[in-house]
Amino acid sequence: MAQAKPKDFAQAPTPAPNLLRILTLVTVIGVVIALVFALNIAGTDIEQGEVQRIFYVHMPAFFGAFLAFGATVLGGIMYLWKRDPKWDRLAVAGVEVGFAFAMINLITGSIWARPIWNTWWTWDPRLTSEAIMVLTYAAYMMLRAGIDNMDTRRRFASVYGILAFATVLLTLFIIRFREDTIHPTVVGNSPQNAQGTFAASDGVVTALMVGLVIWGLLVPVTLMWYRIRLENMLDWVNRKKMEVLSA
Amino acid sequence: MKTGFWQVTFAILRKDMLAEIRSRELLSVMGLFALLSVLIFSFALEMDREARETAISGVIWVTVAFASIIGLNRSMSSEREQGSFDALLLAPVDRSALFLGKFLGNFVVVLLVGLILLPLGTLLYNITLITPWVLVILVLGIFGISTTGTLLAAMTAQTRARDALLSIAMLPIVLPVLLASVRATTSIISGDPTDLWISWPQILLVMDVIYMVLCFFTFGFIIEE
To answer: Measured between alpha carbons, how far is A10 from A61 in angstroms, rounded to an integer?
Structure first.
């Protein structure tokens, strides 16, 4: 058998460290607080009514996805540089968590659009670019699954994860250079034909900030940590399997 | 001793061009595909002039994208099958030069297909497509498709589900380029004033540069071993 470098080996699984336990607890409490802020404390929107409250999950979920996909880029660059599989574990955790958050973002947006835009889905520039983004990361997972050799898989996934981030940036900035979008912007002026804009009053801003910290930071970080540990465990099991087979 | 960067690039380009001129394998397959695709679209979309003006650029670019996938698959898998790529990797040359050479080869072939498509579209759709600005968009768009295409083809050629995987991996990444190209082409052929669409070639140029830089520097990681 070819000699593997020691750093290629995954570490034996350990019980969850205390910091992770605390983080999990904080996240769970944080989710409850964010929901209280979104559902109770923030005032009801005059024009849109209760459905506007979905915004406190919708927008933070995109930034959760943004953070996770950003972690994939970091993991990809660091893996290509250091060749330590732990960076690739970060990358794959980023893609899967980010994909979940992008789906939350799409689904909540769709639920909101039904009463406000009177349709579940429309080929608006931002909706289109987000759909492209989700498909790109679905392709990432297909690509990973299609390669057997571990090193090749990690290298290709790193490169693809870096490339794929272009679609995330496109989704973020497309409403700045495509005036025909009907998607409202929160920061700065909405495009002229945006439908469903609302004023950012005090209650809205507070609830949004709480939502951003919880959905955009705490939840994705906690989930990614668990996912990294899971991937480590998988690598470890695979290595044990190889050892038994070659013995 | 290391061969010079540009020497390697042009040697690869020359090799690919020579193989293409002798076999005409890629151009005949891609050209025939392009012809069929444009014909099918023109049968499927029987429209008045206005509808044709908006549809023709979409037809052209969809055809270019799919034709380039066919070409890229062939160009990389023939290297793999005949083991010539391994020989290239053994040679003491710059890996980025290999990328640039392969890229230029793919770029030229896809551009030729695009150049065949323009008169074809003009003929079948009765809309003048051969204008300087459409040519500029064609070059910029195909440049963007070929950069990522070359990188991803080198990647998927090493996987199990090659052809299928290339389209899945490549289409979402090149979609922004396609969108910008389609928009620009539609505007130009419907005779809009320049300041309405000039931002599209600019966006295309920026995307081309970003993709080129990204692919140029990551290609080395794709073809190790």
So the answer is: 31
Once rounded to an integer, what is the mean pLDDT over residues A185-208? 70
User: CA nearest A182: which of A107, A98, A112, A103?
Assistant: A112
Enter the tokens of residue B79: 């290297």
C-beta of residue A70 within 8 angstroms of C-beta of residue A91 = no
Contact A173, A187 (CB under 8 A): no
- Give the whole-number percent of chain A exceeding pLDDT 70: 89
Enumerate the domain spans of chain B.
5-222
For A48, the token pair is 């849109």
Task: Read off the tokens for B100.
Answer: 């640039």
Give residue B88's pLDDT band: very low, low, confident or very high (50, 70, 90).
confident
A129: Cβ–Cβ under 8 A, 6 or more apart, which residues? A167, A170, A171, A174, B176
Burial environment of residue B66 by CB neighbours within 10 A (0 to 12, 13 to 18, 19 or more): middle
Please state, rounded to an integer, the average pLDDT across all residues of chain A.
86
Instruction: Name residue, tokens 């030229």.
Output: B108
Q: Which of B80, B173, B213 to mutate to test the interface with A (most CBs of A within 10 A)?
A: B173
- Assign residue B22 a region (left: φ > 0; alpha: ψ between -120 and 50; beta: otherwise): alpha
Residue A191: pLDDT band with limits 50, 70, 90: low
State residue A49 phi and psi, 5-degree precision: 75, -155
In the predicted model, what is the mean pLDDT of residues B116-144? 90
Collect all residues of chain B within an 8 Å Cβ-Cβ radius of residue A136.
Answer: 172-173
A18-240 CATH pick, 1.10.60, 1.10.3470, 1.20.120, 2.60.90: 1.20.120
Q: Do A155 and B160 touch (CB under 8 A)?
A: no
pLDDT of A3: 46
Is the per-residue pLDDT at B2 higher than 80?
A: no
- φ, ψ of residue B217 in degrees (nearest 5): -85, -20
Q: Is residue B183 within 8 Å of residue B58, measured between CB atoms?
A: no
CB contact under 8 A, B173 and A166: yes
Q: Is pLDDT at A2 greater than 60 in this prediction?
A: no
Chain B contacts in chain A segment 131-150 (CB below 8 A): 132-133, 135-136, 139, 142-143, 146-148
Half-sphere exposure of B92 (CA within 13 A, CB side): 3
Q: pLDDT per residue over A170-182, tens digit each?
A: 888 876 666 667 7
